[in-house]
């Protein structure tokens, strides 16, 4: 029996790769410079490593130099061809944020990707929600809301004017979408809700060249095991029946930063083990 002739309409001309294939460079970040805040631990270290393995040079940012240097050394070992820079900064401090932006613009020629991952949870002596003081609100707001905005402004204002492409990922929390049973998490949850709304405003204003998306990790620890009673207590709310590990969040960041998500902006991805926020 002879082979059936190709079906009419199935020629390469009518099904060009350009139309049906994923965008060129999907899931790759070759030649890009990515800035990751909160990069010395847990999710931020994992995103830095995943970005470097996807081809990006990375500027890793945190406050404590020793831990940042160790995390950067690990990323360099795993991705020896990439340039891995470190910058010690408190993202909630205006002078530090300015210095970081100046460093990235001068040393790396600007940022293609920014991940606002560093977060403050707020130190408080309060024992109930109405005892939470202004200083806690200030601290959390500076780190989780104002800091990310300063970095976006400092790194992308020129790009917005010139049409240079860019990609921003804001790391949120489920507590910014629904209250958690821990009342003292209120400033943190409110700050993450604000960062989500900032994501949406900026995605509209910075289109079409700069995309702005958000990523919500579930409960994640370096070992995947609970480290305290609160984490142990939420286990039964997670349909997958376990906590997440940092590497299980990083893939979503690579997706959002790469051309694979080229038509996605102002959106959020939850990586939380099917927890129904
Ligand atoms: N892990 C989770 O279960 C979970 C769940 C929901 C959402 N999230 C979100 O995911 C992100 C990462 O969480 P994580 O658990 O991986 O964080 P983490 O383990 O607490 O580590 C925080 C990282 O941010 C740095 N950092 C903290 N404050 C900073 C500041 N003001 N300026 C610069 N760097 C700062 C820390 O280093 P230094 O202390 O040296 O600065 C560290 O590298 C956060 O936005 C968090 O809200 C996490």
What does this 3D model show about the protein?
The chain is α/β, with parallel strands linked by helices and 277 residues long. The chain has a single domain, classed as NAD(P)-binding Rossmann-like Domain (Rossmann fold, 3-Layer(aba) Sandwich), CATH 3.40.50. It contains eight helices and seven strands, in the order H-E-H-E-H-E-H-E-H-E-H-E-H-H-E. The chain has helices at 17-20, 42-53, 65-78, 94-108, 134-162, 186-206, 229-234, 247-257, and strands at residues 33-37, 57-62, 84-88, 113-116, 166-171, 210-217, 268-271. A seven-stranded parallel beta sheet has the order 3-2-1-4-5-6-7, sandwiched between helices. Helix 3 links the parallel strand 2 and strand 3 (84-88). The protein starts with 16 loop residues before the first helix and ends in a 6-residue tail after the last strand. The model is unreliable at 1-6 (pLDDT under 50). Bound molecules: NADP nicotinamide-adenine-dinucleotide phosphate (NAP).
Radius of gyration: 21 Å
Number of strands: 7
Structural class computed from helices and strand pairing: alpha/beta
Mean pLDDT across the residues is 95
Any descriptors?
277 residues; alpha/beta; Rossmann fold; 7-stranded parallel beta sheet; 7 strands; 40% helix; 14% strand; globular; disordered N terminus; binds NADP nicotinamide-adenine-dinucleotide phosphate
Short description:
This protein has about 280 residues and is α/β, with parallel strands linked by helices.
């Amino acid at each position: 029996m002879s082979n059936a002739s190709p079906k009419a309409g199935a020629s390469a001309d009518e099904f060009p790769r350009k139309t049906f294939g994923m965008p060129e460079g999907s899931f790759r970040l070759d030649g890009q410079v990515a800035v990751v805040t909160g990069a010395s631990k847990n999710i931020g270290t994992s995103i830095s490593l995943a970005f470097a393995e996807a081809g990006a040079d990375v500027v890793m940012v945190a406050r404590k130099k020793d831990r940042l240097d160790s995390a950067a050394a690990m990323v360099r070992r795993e991705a020896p061809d990439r340039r891995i820079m470190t910058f010690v900064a408190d993202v909630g401090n205006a002078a530090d944020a300015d210095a970081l932006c100046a460093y990235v613009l001068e040393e790396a020629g600007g940022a293609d990707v920014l991940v606002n991952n560093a977060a403050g949870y707020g130190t408080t002596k309060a024992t109930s929600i109405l005892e939470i003081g202004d200083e806690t609100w200030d601290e959390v707001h500076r780190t989780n809301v104002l800091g990310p905005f300063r970095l976006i402004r400092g790194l992308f204002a020129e790009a917005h004017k010139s049409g240079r492409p860019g990609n921003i990922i804001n790391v949120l929390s489920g507590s910014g979408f629904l209250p958690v049973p821990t009342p003292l998490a209120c400033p943190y949850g409110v700050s993450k809700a604000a960062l989500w709304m900032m994501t949406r405003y900026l995605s509209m204003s910075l289109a079409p060249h700069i995309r702005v998306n958000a990523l919500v990790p579930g409960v994640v620890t370096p070992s995947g095991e609970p480290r305290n009673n609160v984490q142990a207590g939420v286990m039964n709310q997670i349909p997958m029946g376990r906590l997440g590990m940092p590497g299980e969040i990083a893939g979503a960041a690579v997706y959002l930063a790469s051309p694979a998500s080229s038509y996605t902006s102002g959106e959020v991805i939850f990586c939380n083990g099917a927890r129904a926020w």
